[in-house]
């Protein structure tokens, strides 16, 4: 599915400028995280220990090509996993699907096994640098048996639409 990027970017950027996007985000439960991240606070993921015999696996391909594979628990998000292992994933909005700094590029082999992105995720993806056909947001992907072994690459750059558009 090809994305139409520029018209949606224009609409979203206009929403940021007029405050329409801000009021939408106020309805989200993580507004405080969002606000404190605007002043540069970073949050690290909280990982669960996988139950014996129920370990799932995820591989991150870092910007330098290095691959890191982790045993993880069902339900943990890729953002929490990355931050819990000190990988370079900013997650500026604290995982509330409002910044696109957790952009990942999913191995096409696993892409179709993921649940469809919702409108909020699609809106943020449209503002991500280096968008690809298999781009997703790490905070929106939760580990499950269906995607055990998933491989994702961290893009060379990410864009924090939140802070840049509020400056
Ligand atoms: S952490 Fe901000 S959109 Fe995922």
Automatic annotation (TrEMBL):
Protein name (Swiss-Prot/TrEMBL): Adrenodoxin homolog
Keyword Iron in annotation: yes
PANTHER family for this protein: FERREDOXIN-2, MITOCHONDRIAL, FERREDOXIN/ADRENODOXIN
Family to which the UniProt record says this protein belongs: Belongs to the adrenodoxin/putidaredoxin family.
GO MF entries: 2 iron, 2 sulfur cluster binding; electron transfer activity; metal ion binding
Pfam families on file: Fer2
GO cellular component, as recorded: mitochondrion
GO BP annotation list: P450-containing electron transport chain
Keywords: 2Fe-2S, Iron, Iron-sulfur, Metal-binding
Entry-linked Gene3D superfamilies: 3.10.20.30
Domain 2Fe-2S ferredoxin-type per the UniProt entry, residue ranges: 56-158
InterPro entries, A to Z: 2Fe-2S_ferredoxin-like_sf (IPR036010), 2Fe-2S_ferredoxin-type (IPR001041), Adrenodoxin-like (IPR001055), Adrenodoxin_Fe-S_BS (IPR018298), Beta-grasp_dom_sf (IPR012675)
Lineage of the organism: Eukaryota, Fungi, Dikarya, Ascomycota, Saccharomycotina
Name of the gene this protein is made from: YAH1
């Amino acid at each position: 599915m090809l994305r139409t990027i520029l018209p949606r970017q224009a609409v979203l950027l206009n929403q940021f400028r007029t405050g329409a996007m801000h009021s939408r985000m106020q309805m989200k439960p993580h507004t405080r995280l969002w606000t404190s991240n605007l002043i540069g606070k970073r949050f690290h993921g909280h990982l669960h220990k996988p139950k014996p015999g129920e370990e799932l696996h995820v591989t991150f391909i870092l910007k330098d090509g290095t691959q890191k594979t982790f045993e993880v628990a069902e339900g943990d998000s890729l953002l929490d996993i990355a931050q819990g292992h000190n990988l370079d994933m900013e997650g500026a909005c604290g995982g509330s699907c409002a910044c696109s700094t957790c952009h990942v590029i999913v191995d096409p082999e696993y892409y179709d096994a993921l649940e469809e992105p919702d409108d909020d995720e699609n809106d943020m993806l449209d503002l991500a640098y280096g968008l690809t056909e298999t781009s997703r947001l790490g905070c929106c992907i939760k580990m499950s048996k269906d995607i055990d072994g998933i491989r994702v690459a961290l893009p060379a750059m990410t864009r924090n639409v939140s802070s840049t558009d509020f400056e």
